[in-house]
Amino acid sequence: MWLFTTLGFFSVVQKPNDAFLTVRARVAEDLIQLQAKYMPELSEVIVGAGSDYPYRATIGHEDFARGLAQIARDIHYDNFKNEVSKEDSAERVQIYSQVWKILMELENEPVYPPSVTGERKRAWKRRAFGGIVINKQSKVLLKEPRDHFGGIVWTFPKGSCHADETPEQAIIREVEEETGIIGRIELQIPDAFESETTLNSYFLMSFERETDWKDIETLRIRWANQEEAEKLIGMTTSEAAREQDLAALKLAYQLHRESPE
């Protein structure tokens, strides 16, 4: 198993003919902290004993299970990556963020039942919801994702619903989590934008207030007028993402101009 914790990253396996587990790590200090805090039965760190993972240690199944149970009991945070940022280096946090983004591809590959073909596939696509916040100065809120993953340079905050969460609740949460801005939903932008794997809907929002915010997935935020926003979004190298955001921006400003003050 792979195990990501606030103490470090581990690969846990049972080698052939062994009656115990081998806990492997990329960083020796990860194993040292794991032993000190949760698994005192863990052996001393073994250096260079395998073809992969330069550091490893051994432990019995029951001892490992007890330590793992205590790790579970100590989970009191609501965002793993943000918690890691309190405990570890910015470099480690950035690496974990890259892993998180890559693993998102698992949900971006929908498996359709044989009976679902043609237009019916649209209903099976993952739904995502974006917030387009325009303030009283008619400036729109944009975010710059860290590492420009997927070729996206400037875009709108967007995400999927959590369990038992409405689209409206989801987008208010996503805007705050990704930008630190509290927005109020004014209306849903009528058109939905379809990609290969998602069906994206956008909400026009007004600005309410700014929070004391820090999000490791967002490099920075920016307020821009429509012309500036078009140029910033135009920096995105993914044609599909760029054209979708530009179309949503145009619709949002049309509705913003039509809405009463």
Could you explain how this protein is built, in words?
By secondary structure, the chain is an alpha+beta fold. It contains eight helices and eleven strands. The protein has helices at 28-37, 61-73, 80-87, 90-103, 121-124, 167-179, 226-233, 239-258, and strands at 2-4, 9-13, 21-25, 46-47, 55-59, 126-134, 140-145, 158-159, 181-194, 198-210, 218-224. The chain has a five-stranded antiparallel sheet. Strand 1 (2-4) and strand 2 form a beta hairpin. The longest helix has 20 residues, at 239-258.
Fold blueprint:
Layout: E1 2-4, E2 9-13, E3 21-25, H1 28-37, E4 46-47, E5 55-59, H2 61-73, H3 80-87, H4 90-103, H5 121-124, E6 126-134, E7 140-145, E8 158-159, H6 167-179, E9 181-194, E10 198-210, E11 218-224, H7 226-233, H8 239-258
Parallel strand pairs: 6-10
Antiparallel strand pairs: 1-2, 2-3, 3-5, 4-5, 6-8, 7-11, 9-10
Helix pairs in contact: 3-4, 7-8
